[in-house]
Every structure is written in structure tokens, then in C-alpha cells.
Amino acid sequence: MSLRDELLLAMSGSAIFTVGLLSLCAYFASVLVRERILLWFGLFAAPYGLALVLHSTLNPVPDSPAELLLIVLRRLIGLAAIVPALLLFHEFYGKGWRLSSKWVTWIYVLAAVYVLVLLGMRERAYAIPSPGMALVILVPLELVVDRIAGYRPPPIQHRPVIFAGLAVFFLTFAYDHISQLWLGNMRTTLEPLGFVILTICLGYVVSRRVAANQAEWIYMADEMRAARRIQAALLPPSMPSSAGVSVSARYAPVTAVAGDFYGFPRSGHQWMDIIVADVVGHGVPAALVASMVKVSVFSVSQDRTCPHESIAVLNTVLCEQVSGQYATAVYMSLRGDLGVGWYSSAGHPPPLLWRRRSQTLESLDEGGLLLGVRKGEPFTAKQFQFEQGDRLLVYSDGLTEAENAAGLSFGDLRLPELFASQQSCTAEKFADSLLQDVLAWSEKDSGPGQTDDITFVVVDLG
Fold first, then answer.
1. 115 with 252, same domain?
2. Do 313 and 275 meet the contact criterion of CB atoms below 8 Å apart?
3. CA dihedral defined by 222, 226, 229, 235, rounded to 10 degrees?
4. CA dist 180 to 175, 187, 255, Å?
């Protein structure tokens, strides 16, 4: 091999090795849908390029131990590179007729094992035939048999470009292996050129796919922002105004859209209704159900005077309209002039009532089955008394179940202390402190650790 040929081969091998590494980096660093062709191509190209570099740069003395070691090393690298090459081919071609692609791979693996055994037994390693000769026969045979059997590869974009690159590489691969077997020509001649053409074809296809994925991701991000704006618009624009009652609320979804919501279906001079609900799940599906539940509760609450009636209607809506979707909810009616409240709960965390006179935290734990399980499920309403200075907290489980790095729940330890220490501040300031505390509690390793939507309503009574 001339100096010029060795230089070209070394440059080609270095370029192919670099492209292989970049493909692997792109695969593992992708935040979008990972393209497996990047993985298989990277595992194929990196060792293949390394073998070319070794072949062109190292020229040991003929028939020396160093030459034997180099030949064995190149053979091992070549054996390892062909398997991801076959997986790359299968990625585009599919399983084949009666799993013919799988059989080709296993036959090659068996041939490779046989060659490894021979490498360990014979000194003249260069005389051992390459298992790639099996592929020169098997791959065309597979294509012919599958065609006759009526197999058609799965539909993929840019099929002509992909198979043109694979075909060129296979033809150069076959030519070099046949010439080595029949003519004793040990030089690699056309195969690197075929690989470069394959790389160009795959680069074109991958770039088009990545561009399409990026465009789709941008479109989905725009859609999610729009969904978040719409969902935010469904939240109350302001807090209700009732005599002697101060209200504040906070809403902190863990994703762009959430399954939590709160609202005030009815309010007047001396009375106010509150609902807090939590649809099981996260993301867009939960948000869609939450929006439907909210519209339903506002439409039925005008004709219902008792909390349990509104809860029962919501349960019917979920059972009939979105079977298999579940939610928890608590509906409360407060009469500030009477100091009386009623609530009905469907599998929801119990509201908490801080009684300032006795300095105790009471759990309003009368509950029922969560929504969406069984149509016609009866729900009941429970009455409670409150006094001036008392504070009511209605919330979703994301508040109390938030855990710190030690696995301790916020509701078990921090929440009772916060009620006592912040009892003299306004509802608005208490809501700010509560949200800041629970988010700080959830931080893990100096990063955000919130794992569920957090929604709560604070009501200062009397």
C-alpha cells in the first residue's frame, strides 16, 4: 500500500471514527425521541473507523508477533462492528419473512464465534476467512427469499436514500471480501468509500428526522403554553368577597398543565362555596378532565343547595362521560353570619380548621368514595362550627404529601407548626409562607423536588 493510500485510509478512518462517536453522543444527549439509528450507526462506525486507522498507520514486520497481534485486533474490532451494522439494517428493513433478519444475525454471530476459536488455535491469523463472507451470501439470499415470499419492509421516510447507502456499502464490502478470498488481496480498497457514502445518506436522513422532531417539539411546546393559558383562565380571576371572610389561594402545577383546580361556584354577602378537586394523574389528560369537572360543578351548583348533591352530580358526570378516570374533591359551603359550614368529601384529603381559641388543629375527616368509581354512590354532608379568628385550609394532597430528602412528609411535621406560628398574619401572607415552605421542603440536592400538583385555599373566618 502506497503512502498516499495509507494517508487517505487514515483520514477516512479518523473521520468515520469521529462521526461514530458524535452519533453516540447525539443519541445519549437527545432530550427528544431518541433515534436508534444513531445508536446502531455509532456502534458500527466507531470501531470500523478505529480498524481503518490501525490498518493504515501500523505496519509491523511481516510474520512477526506484532503483525499477528495487529491482525487479531483488527479482526476482533471488525467482528464487533458487524453486529450493530446488522441491527442498523434491520432498523430499516424490519423483521423479514418469518424473522429472516434475526436468523441472519444469529448465523453471523455463530460464524464469528467460529472465527474466534480459530484465532485462538492458529498462528497464521490472516489466513482465516472473515465471517463477513457469510453476509455476502446471506444478505442477498434474505432479500430474494423475502421478496418471493411477499414480505415488504415497513414504510419509512426517505427509503430510497437509506437503501441506496446500504446497497453501496454492501457492494463495496462484498467486493473487498471476495477479492481477498479469491485473489489473496489483503488491502482494503473500496469498502471505506462505500462507508463514506453510507454515512452521507444516513446523515441526510437523520438530519431530516431530527429537524422534523424539533419542529414537532416546538409545536407541542406552543400547544402546551396555550393549554396552560386556557387552564389558568379557568381559575378564579379574583377571590370572592364575603362579610367577615378573607380568602387567598395558591396553584402550583408540577407540569405545564395540571389535574388540580379550585373555585368558588357560589358566593354572596354572608355565604360562600368552595371546591378543590384533584384528578388522578398528571399532564394533559388530567387537565382535560379537570376542566370538564370544573365546568360541570359550576353549572350544577346553581341548582344545588347542599354540598353532597353537587359532589353526587360530579360523580355521575365522571362515570358517564369519562369512564375510567377518577378524581377526588371536597365541596364546602360557609355561612359567615351563622358561623356554620357544611362539607362533602369524595376521597379527598380532609380540610384543616385551626381553632384559635383552643390553639388546636382539627381535621374535618368525614369522607366518601372518590369520584368516578361507581355511579349512584351516595355522599353525605357534614356540619361544623367556626368562630372569629379561625382559619380553614382546603388543599390537594400535593401539599401534605410533599417529602423532603429524608422522606418525611410536609403535612406530618411542618404544617401544624406553620398554623401556630403564622396565626396572626393575613390569609394572603399565610398562603405565601405556606407555598414557599412546601416548595423549600421538597427541594432535594439543591434542586426542585416537587412531584405533584399543589393547590390550596386559605379562608380566615369570622
1. no
2. no
3. -140
4. 9, 8, 60
- Which residues does residue 352 pair with via DSSP β-bridges, in sequence order? 363, 393
Q: Give the CA count within 13 Å in the CB-facing half-sphere of 262.
A: 25
- The reply to whether 230 falls in a domain is no
Mean pLDDT in consecutive groups of 10 residues from the start of the chain, 462 residues: 69 83 80 70 85 74 67 75 83 83 85 76 58 76 88 81 84 80 60 81 76 71 72 78 83 79 84 89 75 74 76 89 87 89 93 93 90 90 92 92 82 85 92 91 62 89 76
Residue 94, C-alpha cell as written in the block? 424490519
SS3 (DSSP) at 454: strand
Whole-angstrom CA distances from 177 to 67, 186, 391 are 20, 9, 84
The Cα-based distances of 100 to 94, 126, 165 in angstroms read 9, 31, 21
Q: Is the dihedral of CA 30, 33, 37, 39 positive or negative?
A: positive
The secondary structure element, H or E, covering residue 313 is helix 307-321
Judge residue 117's burial from the number of C-beta atoms within 10 Å of its C-beta, 0-12 exposed, 13-18 middle, 19 or more buried: exposed
Instruction: Give the structural domain span for 364.
Output: 235-460
pTM as predicted = 0.58
Are both 203 and 244 inside the same structural domain?
A: no
C-alpha cell at 95: 423483521
Residue 392: its H or E element: strand 391-395
Report the number of distinct structural domains present in the chain.
2
Q: Which amino acid is at 357?
A: R
Nearest CA-CA partner of 457 in 375, 396, 376: 396
- Domain boundary, last residue among 222, 246, 281: 222
In the numeric block, which cell numbers belong to residue 155?
A: 414504510
> Long-range contact list for 230-233, CB < 8 A, 24+ apart?
230/291, 231/257, 231/258, 231/261, 231/287, 231/290, 231/291
End residue of a domain, out of 222, 257, 276: 222
Distances (CA, A) of 28 to 33, 36, 150, 296, 431: 11, 10, 37, 45, 42
Burial class (CB in 10 A: 0-12, 13-18, 19+), 459: buried
Q: Provide the Cα torsion 370, 375, 377, 380; round to 10°.
A: 70
Residue 390 sits in the same domain as residue 274? yes
Nearest to 16 by CA among 60, 70, 54: 54
DSSP class per residue in 408-449: -BHHHHHHHHHHHHTTTS-HHHHHHHHHHHHHHHH-BTTB--
In this structure, are 244 and 136 located in the same domain? no
The Cα 18–Cα 26 span in angstroms is: 12
